[in-house]
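subagent[fold] <- orchestrator: predict structure for attached chain, return tokens only, no commentary.
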Amino acid sequence: MGRVVMLAPAPRDVPISVRASLLLGGPLSFFGWVFFGFGMIFVLAFGLPENVAAIFWSLQPQQTATGIATDSRSTGASENRRKVYENRFSFTAADGRIHHGRSYATGTEVQAGDPVTVEYPAASPTHATIQGMRRTTFGPAVLLVTIFPGLGLIFVLFGIVQGSRACYLLANGRLAMGTKKSKERTNAQINRQYVYRMTFEFTGDDGQTYQASANTVDTSVLEDEAQEALVFDPQRPTRAVMLDSLPGSPEFDDTGNIQPKGLRAWLGAVVLPALVMTGLGYYVWTQW
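subagent[fold] -> orchestrator:
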């Protein structure tokens, strides 16, 4: 993006395509959606929703009853190279009705006709389990698979917060030119390239000197001019963004108005989040 010599009076219109690029198109958001999307595949494959429900029911007041094992089969899953078995049973609950259930255990299978002790929530006998077994294929340790989607979600939310701030400053901020003060390499990497934190100084409306910082892999975008354009909040000059560091590098016309992005940039920002959320929504729709 070339140097911005003027901005239209605030508040300025920020086209929806530019908002999409700022909210969803940055590298942090991209990696966040990748981590979240792939992580959720494992979360759903390992039955995390069922595990959460199982934990909920296990915390409710329990009752016991004597039941009969009806069947046992291998689930095809394993833990520590030991098969996980699905053990089916039936029992008569305190309400006098016969209920059927299934429990899961690693390396343990029951024989049809064997007596078993059944434990069930008093409020919901349909969530019964054989005492000492579990209600889901995998145990609570499966919660560890939430680390990657959780980390991805943090990245996504952080990117959205940063993008929201950038949208506000583009709409309401004041233009200034910043002079580079420092360039420091961080420990973070993107595609095996180090991220640099670059800091610029600028003068606010009150004549005081303030700083604006940007993290970037491609430092050349903030080093191609003697001074770099930025926008800051006139009410809080410490809130500022470097224009050339923004996702999609917003462009301006001769009157200082923000130009909408083309279809390619628009799709590049929304396709990945749309695919992830559509897939997750489809799973929820089909399961519940």
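orchestrator: received. Logging for downstream: Helices lie at 16-24, 27-45, 48-58, 147-172, 263-287. The first strand starts at residue 62 and ends at 79.
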